[in-house]
Amino acid sequence: MASIESAISEQLAQAFTVYIPLALQPRMDQLPPDVRHTLLGELFRLAVQAWHERCLLPRQGPVTLEFFLAGCDVGIELDASRALLSLVSLVRGRH
User: Fold this and answer.
1) Which of 88, 67, 73 is closest to 18 using CA atoms?
2) 26-72 pLDDT per residue, tens
3) 94 in helix, strand or coil?
4) What is the pTM for the complete model shown?
5) Do residues 46 and 36 lie in contact, with contact meaning Cβ atoms separated by under 8 Å?
6) Is the dihedral of CA 92, 34, 70, 12 positive or negative?
7) How far apart are the C-alpha atoms of 90 and 80, rounded to whole Å?
């Protein structure tokens, strides 16, 4: 049983963390609740996907992704070496 707990702890330690910088928090707070919920859901979904596909991500430096979601231009960085998904830009309603 201890080995199962150890394996689970190791997997959790390797899971990606979703980071929203303090500077972007006011923009998140200004989003309508349904848009904020959609955006947060997508960030966590991408973090889970990145963890499952971490062997495909480059180990040197982050990967930057930009996409349009729920009326927002969103920019994120995936850093496999730090197991970190960071929100780097958020602009509402540019399209």
Assistant:
1) 88
2) 999 999 999 999 999 999 998 888 888 877 777 787 889 999 998 99
3) coil
4) 0.78
5) no
6) positive
7) 22
Spatial contact of 47 and 85, defined as CB atoms under 8 Å apart: yes
Structure tokens at 25: 């928090």
3-state helix, strand, coil in the chain (%, to 5): 45, 30, 25
Q: What is the Cβ-side half-sphere exposure of residue 48, based on CA atoms within 13 angstroms?
A: 6
Residue 47: is it exposed, middle or buried by C-beta count within 10 angstroms (0-12/13-18/19+)?
Answer: buried
Beta pairing, strands 84-92 & 17-19: parallel
Q: Which residue has the tokens 């947060």?
A: 40
